[in-house]
Design brief:
The complex is a heterodimer. By secondary structure, chain A is of the alpha/beta class. Chain A is built from 18 helices and eight strands. Chain B is built from seven helices and four strands. The N and C termini of chain B lie far apart (about 45 Å). The chains are: A alpha/beta, B alpha+beta. The interface between A and B is large, with 58 and 44 residues.
Chain lengths: ~450, ~160
């Protein structure tokens, strides 16, 4: 059976030195089970971390390596780990893996979990040791049935081999791991909403502070890390900080490698493990092969629905947080989307805001009321029945729903592409305003 | 005297009850099993009848209104009867660019239902779903647990064929 994640990442040349996340992938796209994973140096880093390293040294290594969260926000992982309380009496701690991959145009964690389930388990064992967590949960979206099956089989293999459970590898460290599958709703990927969902509640975000490191799941110190982030930990421990810091291209402030991609009407859509700092043009032309014949690139998004649109001239930007920041948006997940010349921006934004409006948890007013308003306005513009004020209404929503005005990052993520689309393609939005002298049609 | 008519007296099967009780042990607090409990009921019956919320609340020791609140929040918990097969069409912007609206048209022509509807013969229910993580093969959809990519509107008929 072919896994959905089988693709270009399996086919490019890879090596242990340059592709720490994906070098173990099989050419046939089948999962790498325990025996093969061990033959490929699997669990060597876990052995080193548990039997040779002090807990604080693991944290320091991850800090020094410059590993940042790969879920889209890019918060330094070591710093997040350092927020866990020093008080030893708080002995019940949790490590949660955010595997609720639902960001539109994001299909990287799926690849890791379907094909390299033991890499995630090894990353979680090492991270749990660093965080002194006794139990971990992989919060997996329910639709990833292949990933759930493969992770559960890998967990069973690891348990049978003494890699999970009590006294792991004779180190005295105990850690148990469960797969928890969700039941839909994009908002579960927000880390405090994820905690509520894991507790069996509605997935509404929590107020911060307190941060999960102090008060997380069931009130206990909790760390939530993305799948790809956790999968990056074993190679840092195994190969060392200096090796990791040398992976990225010159000019990049971000360290290591990242699963990056390009989709849309490109010749060779896919994901590849690439060093931070490569230009978006290399990703677009050398890996994705440029646009399909008959299509031209109109604009692109660097990393998911919540990132802004950029123009073809911005392809010179380097793929790292600061590089994409320089041209006006965020790198997000690093899985880019090509928008071709046949796509109308009003219709595309209507599709995107329908998604964001549907997936709003409804907890805070700007998001709950503002997003459906944007959908209504965009639908009117799409039908060329917009009113003269509609553009102002959209721009005001971009402001009202922006960073710092809502409970979580859902609404700011929803309006970032909207604001940039109006900035670069204002004429397409203005074309939706009903012409003077014509009677606007009534909304359907 | 007014009598409250309960049309669906609901009793959990032994298998459902033991599966739910097994789940409780994975968590510090029984409430955490509420979503899984709803999924267990749904797996057995296709959907979650009202009475299931009461029955689950008794096992977990939490108010039925909390279970109901969870059941209505999550999009993959069905609170009305659905078809034997669930078609989930990815409506991400990547699949929009890939032509998912034409795929929805193809499904409509084939089985005559819109998003959110169930065919009269109870065979299919059609719902939208968040990005299925199959973006290099857009447009994508799932039928039950099977994921498909590079869907052509005129290929829909052949796909549905395999789900009687």
């Amino acid at each position: 059976m072919k896994l959905s994640s089988f693709g270009p990442a399996n086919r490019i040349a890879r090596s242990e030195e340059t592709h720490p996340l994906t070098w173990r992938l099989r050419d046939d796209g089948q999962p790498v089970w325990l025996d093969e994973y061990r033959q490929k140096n699997g669990y060597g880093a876990a052995r080193k971390a548990l039997t040779e390293m002090a807990q604080a040294d693991i944290v320091q290594n991850v800090k020094d390596a410059g590993l940042k969260g790969r879920g889209g926000a890019g918060f330094p992982t070591g710093v997040k780990w350092g927020l866990m309380p020093a008080d030893e009496s708080l002995s019940i701690r949790y490590l949660l893996c955010n595997a609720d991959e639902m960001e539109p145009n994001t299909w990287k964690d799926r690849l890791l979990m379907e094909q390299l389930p033991h890499l995630l388990i090894e990353g979680m064992i090492i991270s749990a040791r660093a965080l002194k967590a006794y139990r971990g949960y992989i919060f997996l979206r329910g639709e990833y049935v292949d990933a759930a099956r493969n992770l559960n089989r890998a967990i069973d293999e690891a348990k049978a081999a003494g890699l999970l459970g009590t006294n792991i590898l004779g180190s005295g460290f105990d850690f148990e791991l469960f797969v928890h599958t969700g039941a839909g709703r994009y908002i579960c990927g927000e880390e405090t909403a994820l905690i509520n969902s894991l507790e069996g509640r509605r997935a509404t975000p929590r107020a911060k502070p307190p941060f999960p490191a102090s008060v997380g799941v069931w009130g206990k110190p909790t760390c939530v890390n993305n799948v790809e982030t956790l999968c990056g930990v074993p190679s840092i421990i195994g190969n060392g900080v200096d090796w990791y810091r040398a992976l990225a291209r010159p000019g990049s402030d971000d360290m290591g490698t990242k699963l990056m991609g390009f989709s849309g009407k490109v010749k060779n859509p896919g994901i590849w493990e690439l060093p931070f700092g490569i230009t978006a043009r290399e990703l677009f032309e050398d890996y994705a092969g440029g646009m399909k014949d008959g299509y031209t690139l109109k604009c692109w998004q660097p990393g998911g629905a919540g990132t802004g649109f950029l123009l073809p001239e911005h392809l010179e930007a380097q793929m790292y947080a600061g590089g994409i920041g320089k041209v006006g948006t965020r790198m997000g997940t690093g899985l880019a989307l090509a928008v071709d010349h046949t796509v109308n921006m009003v219709s595309l934004l209507r599709n995107m805001e329908e998604f964001f409006a549907r997936e709003s948890c409804g907890w805070c007013t700007p998001c709950r009321d503002g997003l459906p308003w944007s959908v209504k306005t965009l639908r009117a513009l799409e039908r060329r029945q917009g009113s003269r004020e509609d553009l102002d209404i959209l721009l005001r929503l971009v402001d009202f729903l922006g960073p710092g005005k809502t409970f979580c990052a859902h609404a700011p993520g929803a309006v970032e592409p909207l604001g940039s689309a109006i900035k670069y393609f204002r004429d397409e939005f203005e074309a939706g305003i009903a012409q003077a002298g014509k009677t606007p049609l009534q909304p359907a | 005297m007014n009598t409250l008519i309960k049309t669906d007296r609901f009793v959990l099967s032994e298998a459902e009850r033991s599966a739910i009780e097994h789940e409780i042990h994975h968590y510090e607090d029984p409430r955490a099993a509420s979503i899984e409990a709803l999924k267990i009921v749904q797996q057995a019956r296709g959907w979650v009848p009202d009475g299931a919320c009461d029955a689950i609340s008794e096992i977990l020791g939490i108010p039925a209104s909390d279970v109901e609140g969870v059941a209505t929040f999550y999009s993959q918990i069905f609170r009305v009867p659905v078809g034997r097969h669930i078609i989930r069409v990815c409506d991400s912007m990547t699949c929009y660019i890939g032509g998912h609206e034409a795929v929805l048209d193809g499904i409509r022509q084939q089985i005559g239902i819109e998003s959110g509807q169930t065919t009269a013969d109870g065979r299919f229910t059609l719902i939208p779903v968040c990005c299925l993580g199959n973006c290099d093969k857009a447009p994508a959809l799932m039928i039950d647990d099977d994921t498909f990519g590079d869907i052509q509107p005129d290929g829909v008929a052949a796909l549905l064929e395999a789900y009687p």
